[in-house]
Every structure is written in structure tokens, then in C-alpha cells.
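Below is how a single chain appears once it has passed through the pipeline. First comes the sequence as given, then the structure the pipeline wrote out for it. We keep one example in the README because the format questions we get most often are answered faster by looking than by reading.
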Amino acid sequence: MKKSVGILLVVLAAVMVITGCGSSGSNGSSVEGVYKAEAGEDTVVLTLKADNTGTFSLSEDLEGLAITYKVKGDSVVLTGPDGKELGDTGTFTIVDEGLRDFAGNLYMKQ
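Resulting structure:
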């Protein structure tokens, strides 16, 4: 019986690591940082902080929209100040180079 419980714990730990349920997946620390993408003449800036808050700005010169975020699998989902998810425009896929938005724009981690 003890051996079965031990094996179960090892399997559960492996699943948590693979699915990102450990500390870096649940609090988003693996994605925290500043991401930038070029959009015409502007630079779009997404800042993700360790406390799952941040800003989304359409220019480096603007203060930006206050957001919160969650890491869901291989995605980062933004929530606006009203507490509602921002939908497709606020969902980013985590890729090796940074984050990719719904339109395919690449946000490079700075």
C-alpha cells in the first residue's frame, strides 16, 4: 500500500510539472517581464508582473491599461479593469520567442 501511494505521488508531481501547475505556471512568474511588438509607427508594450498584474499600452509613451493576467496552459489571458477577460485580443500564445497575439504579431521579451 505504501508503495502505491509513493508511486501515485510521483506521478502527480510529474503531471504538475508537465502541465505547469507548479509555482511558475500558477502565478505566471515564468512569463513575467516586458514584451514589445511593432505596430506601424507605434510600439505596443505588454508588461506582466510577478503578482499577475500589469499594463497593456499602444505606445511606449502612454501609461497603458491596467490588467491582470492568468496563465492557462500555453496561453496568457488578460483581464481588464472591469474584471472581464479581454477575449481574443487579450489572449496570447506562449512561444519560444515571447508571446504571439491572435493576429500573429510577435511580442518579444525585453
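The chain is about 20% helix and 40% strand.

See the next section for the split statistics.
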